[in-house]
Amino acid sequence: MVRLLWLIIISVRTLIVSYKIKYSSLSTFELIERISVHEDHNALNCFLSFRKLLTINNKRILLADYLLKLKEGNFYPYLIIPNKETKLEEKLDLIYDRTLQKFSVLKKYSEKIEGPYCNNQYNELYKQLNDYYGSRSSISQLDLELKAESLLKGMVIRHLKYSWLEVCRKTNRLYQRYRWVLAKGVIELMKPVSIKGREFTKWLEEHIENPDPSNKGEKYRIQNAVDNWFGHSSEIDYELIAYMQNDKIDPNFDIERYPENFTTLIANEKSTNINKLRPSIRSLGKTKLKMFISKILDNIVYDEDKDISIAKEFGLSKAAYSRFAGKNWKNNNKGEVPDLWKNIAHIITSDPILIELAISLGINTDIDSILKLTKTR
Q1: What letter would DSSP give residue 191?
Q2: What is the b/e burial string over 165-198, where b = at least 16 CB atoms within 10 angstroms of the residue's CB?
Q3: What are the angstrom distances between the C-alpha of 332 and each of 309, 329, 340, 363?
Q4: Inter-axis angle of helices 119-134 and 28-38, to 10 degrees?
Q5: Using an 8 Å Cβ cutoff, are 271 and 284 in contact?
Q6: What is the spatial distance between Cα 38 and Cα 133, in angstroms, rounded to a whole number?
Q7: Sequence-distant contacts of 343-347: CB under 8 A, at least 24 apart
């Protein structure tokens, strides 16, 4: 309670307007930079209080509200918690508190508040965004904001999982350490206290095939089998947490699979499948096609005159351009979807991370319309 009151006091203090920096006018990237480099609590408060970077049911919400919504559903589907989990309500509260603290308390307040602290998270966000920004000759503010959102979501979900393991370790003592001695080495596991060592060894021998102590992921594989059979161990040690952090065993949030921005990703995909395009577009060749698609998508907010100039620049007729990437297809009587938008819709809906990007861009309803039209033809 003391810690909570102190956080409230600090938050209220930060509402005083700074005459040196107008935090509300800073971009998300600039706020993260100030948090990381300067440990700026005003920037952190602005980031947490006003930047709605996470989405649930197509609604953009703040980080604290996002965690609260997930908590209401037991953090499903990001955490799979058994129904018979002991002290469930207490654990859910602790998971929420611990994860939120990992994004809201700076280390410079360590004398007043115990960790965890948020410095490492914002340092990593800043590093990845800085690398992303620096690796390109030009990048739009929108792409940078989208990258920040996708990185933040991946980081929040990862830390939800770490918080769950940490909370289980501290709140449940129904399991104890157990060393499974094998001919090739030893594997340390967590064993239910209700089962005798010999019985547990027998169960392992009957249910675990080809145990390999030399494989660093073996401990996780076997512990998972134990948890699925006996119920969640609720007391996983930090060695396992370190393994989860160092090895990308969670493909659902492997944001690093997408080093390029949305525009480059689509351009690369279309050039790879150039043989499937219309002859007039295919004649551009792979290199020129990439430039063509990148220019179309980078200038997607421009008017029809800009589309015409792009078509002329690449030696295409207005009709050929319209069939490939025309923006007024909804207004014609035929209602035919241009090839580029049709292909992009299918690419996006095949990947959960691209779906999130589409929602962030606000084009998910257009994608749904395109898919419905293509299915009826």
Answers
A1: E
A2: bbbbbeebeebeebebeeeeeebebbbbeebeee
A3: 21, 6, 17, 20
A4: 130
A5: no
A6: 20
A7: 343/269, 343/270, 344/266, 345/370, 345/371, 345/374, 346/371, 346/374, 347/266, 347/269
Check whether the bond before 259 is cis (ω within 30° of 0).
Answer: no
Token output for 216:
């660093």
Structure-block tokens of residue 251: 């493909």
Do 43 and 26 form a contact (C-beta atoms < 8 A)? yes
Instruction: State the first-to-last Cα distance of the chain, in angstroms, to the nearest integer.
Output: 62
Residue where the block lists tokens 């959960």: 352
- CA–CA distance, 266 with 307 (Å, rounded to integer): 18
Structure tokens given for 167: 């909370």
Average pLDDT over residues 359-369: 61
* 17: DSSP letter: P
Contact 168, 235 (CB under 8 A): yes
d(CA 41, CA 11): 9
Place of tokens 């956080």: 7
Pick the most confident of 42-51, 186-195, 280-289. 42-51
- Domain residue ranges in the chain: 2-170, 173-233, 260-375
Note the residue count of the chain.
Answer: 377
* Residue 308 structure tokens: 């015409």
pLDDT in tens, 234-288: 443 444 444 444 433 333 333 333 434 566 667 777 778 788 888 888 888 888 8
